[in-house]
Amino acid sequence: MTFIMVDMGSVCKFVCLLIILNSVHLASSFKWPVPYKRFSERPPTNPYCQAGLIGFCPTGEVPDTMPKFNPTDRVEVWALKAPVWEFKFGDLLEKFHIMHDAMAFNNLNTGQNYTMEWYELFQLFNCTFPHLLQNDTLLWCNQGAACIYDGVDDLHWSQNGTLVKVAEITGDVFNKFAMWALNDNKTGIYYETWTVEEKPGGKMWFDSYDCASFVLRAFDELYALGATFNHSVHLNYTRIHLYSHEPQYLGNASVVFGPGANKTLVKDIIEFYAKFQSHQSMKDLLEHLIEAYIEIFKDGKFYFFYNFEYWFLPMKSPYMKLTYYEIPLPGKNETDLSHREKKLVWHYDEKAGVSHANSKHLSVSNEDKNTLHFKGHADDKDKLHFKKHDGH
Ligand SMILES: *[C@@H]1O[C@H](CO)[C@@H](O)[C@H](O)[C@H]1NC(C)=O
Ligand SMILES: *[C@@H]1O[C@H](CO)[C@@H](O)[C@H](O)[C@H]1NC(C)=O
Ligand SMILES: *[C@@H]1O[C@H](CO)[C@@H](O)[C@H](O)[C@H]1NC(C)=O
Ligand SMILES: *[C@@H]1O[C@H](CO)[C@@H](O)[C@H](O)[C@H]1NC(C)=O
Ligand SMILES: *[C@@H]1O[C@H](CO)[C@@H](O)[C@H](O)[C@H]1NC(C)=O
Ligand SMILES: *[C@@H]1O[C@H](CO)[C@@H](O)[C@H](O)[C@H]1NC(C)=O
Ligand SMILES: *[C@@H]1O[C@H](CO)[C@@H](O)[C@H](O)[C@H]1NC(C)=O
Ligand SMILES: *[C@@H]1O[C@H](CO)[C@@H](O)[C@H](O)[C@H]1NC(C)=O
Ligand SMILES: *[C@@H]1O[C@H](CO)[C@@H](O)[C@H](O)[C@H]1NC(C)=O
Ligand SMILES: *[C@@H]1O[C@H](CO)[C@@H](O)[C@H](O)[C@H]1NC(C)=O
């Protein structure tokens, strides 16, 4: 009897193993791109997460409120763009086309206008990589949210960026949009820097969720509410892509790091994120992105965090790319969007002959206004070797 029990036990273990293997197999057929998770409400931020010098939305309206217009008011909708951190980098990031997107509403009846943007509560670097705490746990300060404030700084947006009217709506449409915006802000709580795809123009595994995606979905919502957009206006948006074979699901923090965790995996993840621990010095952002880039193609792996869950990305060439392509305003019938993927911006070529350079000497060539080409080589973690690349 005892013998049979034991035997049954191992049969069960075998069957269970089969079931587990089978469910692992099933689990690999995910719905792509993985939908960005909506939450029922925004949780309080971890007190460890602190904004730098300037807090989130310092001049904003009363939190979680939107202005309310007279239903018959005429309201202009504007698209705004400015280079990210131009105050720190001059126009370097403008040449890289890392642009910040925002929108504005100008009420023609009241003469009041408003700027609206969706951005990181604790800045971009904090949203892109977690903090590695003393006890080897990871803490993400990756919330993002919408901020609406009085006025539009026309000069700021127009001088090195974009300030263009895209539509005119009624106060009624604005009020409906405002309801949508409050709900969107409550349920879409975290920022995602990366767009993860199979290859340039290929299958998308994960979509980004950033300032640009806010403007795009806000315009889509306005269109759904009846706004007509001016299709003579052409707007391009920044995307930072990672390229990977089919991502492997790892699980949430309690599965990955909790009791019974795979120690090898934990060590590997910690080592990966340990490379990106310069949350304080924003001036190093560009260098860290490039450093990240090198680590990614050197090891062919990336630990990715989405919907508060970890994934493993088996990275593949061209590993990482920054694009600045047009996305038409809603209502324009455009089905073929493949043109968005034609240009390479950061293209790594392992076989390239290399010229020595330190990452500090990253030179920006601007012979083609839209793209910055360089070839990189990663034989030394602390040095970047690259040369100008004539493009494809
Ligand atoms: C990133 O988060 C850390 C920890 O909260 C904080 O000290 C730092 O100021 C943040 N960085 C920026 C640029 O806000
Ligand atoms: C969005 O949420 C943030 C964080 O809770 C809040 O500070 C902000 O006021 C909200 N924005 C709007 C437009 O309601
Ligand atoms: C916003 O209002 C100010 C003050 O009236 C005006 O100078 C500015 O041009 C307006 N900008 C937009 C985009 O409506
Ligand atoms: C690690 O440290 C943080 C901050 O001190 C703490 O909140 C967290 O509970 C700790 N985690 C573990 C697993 O000890
Ligand atoms: C535009 O760029 C120039 C050159 O980088 C800079 O001096 C100027 O302050 C920028 N303008 C605005 C409004 O940020
Ligand atoms: C549409 O946009 C174009 C380009 O910016 C502009 O010349 C034109 O006046 C706009 N049309 C309307 C009706 O606003
Ligand atoms: C983490 O994932 C496990 C397994 O899917 C689940 O049981 C648990 O509730 C999750 N924990 C959180 C905090 O979501
Ligand atoms: C643990 O993680 C490592 C690294 O990802 C992996 O190679 C190994 O197969 C995992 N072990 C188990 C038992 O899942
Ligand atoms: C905007 O995108 C289009 C195609 O998507 C491209 O042809 C154009 O050069 C881009 N403009 C800039 C300024 O990069
Ligand atoms: C959009 O374009 C497609 C393909 O060219 C066409 O079949 C479809 O009817 C068009 N839709 C509209 C609303 O014009």
Architecture overview:
The chain is an alpha+beta fold and 392 residues long. The chain has one domain. 28% of the residues lie in helices and 26% in strands. Strands 8, 9, 10, 11, 12 and 13 form a six-stranded mixed sheet that branches. Strand 2 (99-107) and strand 3 form a beta hairpin. The longest helix is centred in the N-terminal third of the chain and has 26 residues, at 2-27. The chain starts with a helix and ends with a strand. Mean pLDDT is 76; it is low at 1-27, 86-91 and 335-392. One 2-acetamido-2-deoxy-beta-D-glucopyranose binds next to loops.
Keywords summarizing the entry:
26% strand, 10 helices, 5-stranded antiparallel β-sheet, 6-stranded mixed β-sheet, globular
Question: How is this structure best summarized?
Answer:
Pfam families: CLN5. This protein has 392 residues and is of the alpha+beta class.
